[in-house]
Structure formats: structure tokens, C-alpha cells
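note to self: dont lose this again. the chain is below, predicted strucutre after it. 119 aa total, dont forget to put it in the shared folder this time
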Amino acid sequence: QVQLVESGGGSVQAGDSLRLSCAASGRFYSSFSMAWFRQAPGKEREFVARIRWSAADTEYADSVKGRFTISKDNTRNTLYLQMNRLKVEDTAVYYCAVRFSSAGQYDYWGQGTQVTVSS
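---
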């Protein structure tokens, strides 16, 4: 079992920054990658960013590339998402997730943290 707890969400204005955290516990250390997803009201959940737990390679959605940075602290078992130059369209519930394989669905999900960006 893996437990994921997100934090750091809030209400900000366009152009501001936020940093989300995802504290992991359980056997996540054998995971292949961890990722951030988001879901806006009335929309499908979408991929935001991914990072391999044992390496540093990352992947981003085009909509956040250059503004968001995914990172991890293996010593603290924590995943981060630094979000800069936030836009109104970034408003969503943000979820972290872990996957034990190199492809396919993610195996465990956190409960989500709300990010609201106003103009």
C-alpha cells in the first residue's frame, strides 16, 4: 500500500506562485514514477507533470511547460510541484499519483488539493 497526501493548495491571483507538496508513505520507494494531475470543474482529469523516482528525467504537459517544475526529495519522501506565473485556467484540484510500471495507469492517488487562480 502507498499513501499520498497533498498540501499547499490555495487561492491566489494570476501571476502568483504556489508550491504543492505530496508526502508519500508505504512502499512507494519501489515506484517507477510519480506524477501530478489536475481536474477542473466539468473537465476530465489531465496530466500535468511526471518524474521518475530513481532518476531525474521529467515530462510536462504543454500547457504548463516553462511555468511549472516537478521535483522530489528522496530523503523526505516528498514530491513537489512549483507553479509559477499561474493563470486562471490553472484552477483545478491537483492530485499526485504513483505508478509501479513504466507505462499504463497510475496505481495510487492522493485526495487532491484545490488551487484557485483569480484574475
